[in-house]
Every structure is written in structure tokens, then in C-alpha cells.
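Customer escalation, tier 2.

The customer says the design service returned an amino acid string that "doesn't look like it belongs to this structure." They asked us to rerun it and document both sides in this ticket. The original C-alpha cells are below, unchanged.
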């Protein structure tokens, strides 16, 4: 029975690892030697598909620890992909980091206990992020996601390097590593220091399963929860925390449950900005122009909460253009097509290699009898398909066929 169970888990892990994501590219494997750690760090980078077609969009970074725990790690990545795809969170750049064998304790326990947590925190905050910045469009917003030992480390890393980290999601964490005075003092110093940088917000989400179901961190997390409640009046106003503990959850089950709730909560301002933009269109009175200042204000408010530049994404431009073009409330009369066109052209400035904007523009022009302009955009879309991997081979084949059909009709 045990062999059969192990085989199921093995094949499940293999199947998950082999799956393509909806909103993300396949992982890029990396190895980096770090002199301070005296060892090589193995990690993978998972980029959003939108990055293939964008010009100036920058993406928050998720450091997801414990990549060696295949099943839990893949569940977390699938959760990120799911929440991105249903527009609850923005596209992010995921960095999955393996901590195998001795490194899991060696790199996550503090120096005063003869280990190297400080060096590992500095590696994530400085060396690795600087490397990412050279090659990829990263936003200055970094979240560490960890479980158990690595959740405890993540909490400590936020206290130590608040200058570089923004958020922590720690499943099965503990009250400062089960009562470590040095880590508690680091947290209290962190609270004092961030009061001097009110323009930057910090987010701390944590959890535990229940001891009855095998999570030995429950009582320690309850102690952490009580500590933060008692310290409420002295905590920094720019520090936001929430306990996502769940009765009935096991030690191995709590990471997936926590991550889904925590990152959804973390990026609530992002999803609200899109909702606000849709409501602006629904209630729009003037018919002559796109209210860019009002849209920008919604995203500026989200940026203020999250402390990085939150930008409209592909979905924003598609959604708002569709709202104008379809004119569900019959508010825009004969201006509906021009408003939709303006939005799509703005979208092309930021996502110049996204063929969907060009085909949408072609469809709009064709709908009002502008055959030459429709032909122009269909041909541009056809050209772009060959220069990006945003679509897979089958999608490209189908899109080429559809575009060629439209082009033949217009010639």
C-alpha cells in the first residue's frame, strides 16, 4: 500500500511539473554560486506570458521557497497561475528556490545560532534581485513565500531587510522561531524603523494548521497572533498583517490554502483598480473622450497601497475597449468605435507585440466599413504572430488560418 501511494505521489508530481501554465511561460532553470553562502543556489524563473508582448510593464517578484517539495511547490505555482488568470492578482515573476538537504536549515537559521540566514536573506534581497533586474522587467516589490522552516526564515528576512522586501506569506510559521529573542528584537526594531518610511507599506500574512491534524506550529502561531493583537497600538501604521490559520488543516495542506487567501488579499488593490475602471465606463456621462485621468487615479491609488507602480495590464485594455465597442448601456452612440480604438491604440504602446489588439482594431474597422484599415491591422497581426511565442504552435496555426481568411475577403 505504501509503495502504491508513493507511486501515485511521484506520478502526480511529475504530471504537475510537466503541465503548461495558462498565464506563465515554462520555467527557466538557473544555478548561481554565492560566496557568502559558500555554495550554489538552484532556482527557476517563471515569467508571465504577457512579458513576451509588453514594452514597458514591470512585474512584482515572488520568491517561492522549498521548490524541492514538488507537490506543495507545484500547487502554489498553479494557485498563482489560477489567480492571475482570473484577474485576482497581477502577473508576477516567480523565482522558485530549492533548499535541499542541509541547506534548508543551514540557510534559514540565524547567524547567532551558527547558521547563515542573514547571508541567505542578503542573497535574495541584493544579489539575486540585482541579477533579475539586469535580465527581466522587475518591479521593486518582493514577496517571500515559505512554509514551516522557510516561513520562519521569511519573517526574519522581512525584519532584517525591510529596505528590499515588501511582503511575506508564511504557512506554519511560529512565534519568532518558537521564542528566539534575537528574532523578536529584530521584528521590534523593524517596527520602529518602518515608522520613518510611511510611504512604503509592508504586508505579513501567516498561518498554521491544527495540532490535531499534525501541525505542531498551531500553539506558537496562536501566540504570535496574540502578540500582534496586544502590540496593536505600537505597531507601525504601514504594517498590515492577517492570520489565515485554519482548523482542520494539516501541516502539509496549509501552504496551498494559505497562499491562495494571502496573495488574493495582498493584491486586492490591483483587482479593485480594474473593477473601478469598468464602473467608470458604466457611469460615464461624457461621450467625446476616454477618461484617462480617472482610470489613472484608480491605478495610482492601488500603487499607493502596494508601494510600487501598478500598471494597467492586457485585460484592462481589452475589457475597456470591449465595453466601449459593445456599448452595453447604449451610452456612446456613434462614438463607441472611436473610443474603443483609442483604448486599443494606447494598449499597443505598452503591449506592441500582442496580436489581439491588432485583430480587435481590424474587427472594429471592418464593422463600420473601413476595409483598408481593417486589412492593414489584420496584416500587422499576421506579421506579429511570427515574432512572438505568446501563442503556442497550435494557436498560431489556427490564428494564421483565421487571419488569412479575413485578408482574402478584403482583398
Amino acid at each position: 500500500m505504501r509503495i502504491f501511494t508513493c507511486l501515485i505521489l511521484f506520478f502526480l508530481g511529475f504530471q504537475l511539473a510537466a503541465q503548461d501554465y495558462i498565464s506563465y511561460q515554462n520555467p527557466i532553470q538557473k544555478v548561481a554560486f554565492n560566496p557568502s553562502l559558500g555554495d550554489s543556489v538552484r532556482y527557476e524563473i517563471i515569467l508571465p506570458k504577457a512579458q513576451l508582448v509588453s514594452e514597458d510593464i514591470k512585474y512584482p517578484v515572488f520568491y517561492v521557497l522549498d521548490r524541492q517539495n514538488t507537490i506543495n511547490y507545484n500547487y502554489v505555482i498553479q494557485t498563482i497561475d489560477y489567480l492571475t488568470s482570473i484577474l485576482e492578482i497581477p502577473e508576477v515573476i516567480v523565482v522558485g528556490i530549492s533548499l535541499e538537504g542541509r541547506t534548508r536549515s543551514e540557510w534559514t537559521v540565524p547567524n547567532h545560532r551558527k547558521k547563515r540566514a542573514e547571508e541567505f536573506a542578503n542573497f535574495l534581497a541584493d544579489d539575486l534581485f540585482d541579477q533579475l533586474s539586469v535580465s527581466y522587467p522587475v518591479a521593486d516589490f518582493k514577496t517571500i513565500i515559505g512554509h514551516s522552516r522557510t516561513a520562519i526564515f521569511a519573517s526574519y528576512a522581512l525584519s532584517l531587510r525591510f529596505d528590499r522586501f515588501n511582503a511575506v506569506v508564511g504557512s506554519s510559521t511560529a512565534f519568532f522561531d518558537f521564542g528566539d529573542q534575537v528574532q523578536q528584537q529584530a521584528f521590534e526594531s523593524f517596527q520602529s524603523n518602518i515608522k520613518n518610511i510611511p510611504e512604503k507599506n509592508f504586508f505579513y500574512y501567516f498561518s498554521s494548521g491544527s495540532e490535531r491534524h499534525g501541525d505542531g506550529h498551531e500553539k506558537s502561531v496562536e501566540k504570535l497572533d496574540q502578540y500582534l493583537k496586544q502590540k496593536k497600538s505600537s505597531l507601525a501604521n504601514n504594517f498590515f498583517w492577517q492570520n489565515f490559520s485554519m482548523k482542520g488543516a494539516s501541516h502539509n495542506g496549509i501552504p496551498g490554502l494559505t497562499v491562495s487567501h494571502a496573495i488574493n488579499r495582498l493584491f486586492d488593490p490591483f483587482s479593485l483598480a480594474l473593477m473601478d475602471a469598468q464602473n467608470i465606463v458604466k457611469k460615464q456621462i461624457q461621450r467625446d473622450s476616454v477618461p484617462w485621468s480617472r482610470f489613472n487615479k484608480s491605478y495610482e491609488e492601488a500603487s499607493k497601497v502596494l508601494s510600487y507602480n501598478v500598471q494597467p495590464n492586457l485585460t484592462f485594455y481589452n475589457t475597456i475597449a470591449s465595453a466601449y465597442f459593445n456599448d452595453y448601456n447604449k451610452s456612446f452612440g456613434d462614438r463607441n468605435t472611436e473610443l474603443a480604438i483609442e483604448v486599443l491604440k494606447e494598449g499597443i504602446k505598452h503591449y506592441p507585440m500582442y496580436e489581439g489588439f491588432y485583430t480587435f482594431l481590424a474587427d472594429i474597422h471592418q464593422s463600420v466599413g473601413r476595409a483598408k484599415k481593417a486589412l492593414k491591422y489584420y496584416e500587422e497581426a499576421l506579421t506579429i504572430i511570427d515574432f512572438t511565442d505568446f501563442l503556442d504552435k497550435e494557436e498560431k496555426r489556427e490564428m494564421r488560418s483565421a487571419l488569412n481568411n479575413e485578408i482574402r475577403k478584403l482583398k
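Tier 2 assessment: The sequence is consistent with the input. The first strand starts at residue 28 and ends at 34. The radius of gyration is 24 Å. Sent an explanation to the customer and offered a walkthrough call.
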